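Recall that a protein's primary structure is simply its ordered list of amino acids. Everything else, from secondary elements to tertiary packing, is in principle encoded there. The following example makes that idea concrete.
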Amino acid sequence: MALSLRTSYFLIMSLSQSALDNCTDIQFEKSNKSIVPLAIGHNKLYLCHKESIDHLQKILIDSLFLKHFFNKYYMFLGNNIPIFQSYHLPEWNMRRRVYEYLKIHHPEFYVKFRSLTGS
């Protein structure tokens, strides 16, 4: 279920974090400046209070599970936002396609497999 920007704002005010579906919504930049992007996942923009961003991002980056999904940082509205997603590319070989399939559709198996192989 996608949340509107207004609904997300009220959730963040009460719960400290939220996720916006279809995160390409331009309205975000014009919204309340106390709410900032925390991270980007598969088609989601996670938001939090500005004063919580350092603490929450450290938790995400230090996560043994999420480290397998980290792709890169992106500078957005003055914040360095971690991105935990990637898109399939036509030039990937079969092995990489299998890894990416597992990463999206069976993340628990993917993490276990990558931990066993040491990569």
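The chain has two domains: 5-83, 87-119. Residues 5-83 form one domain.
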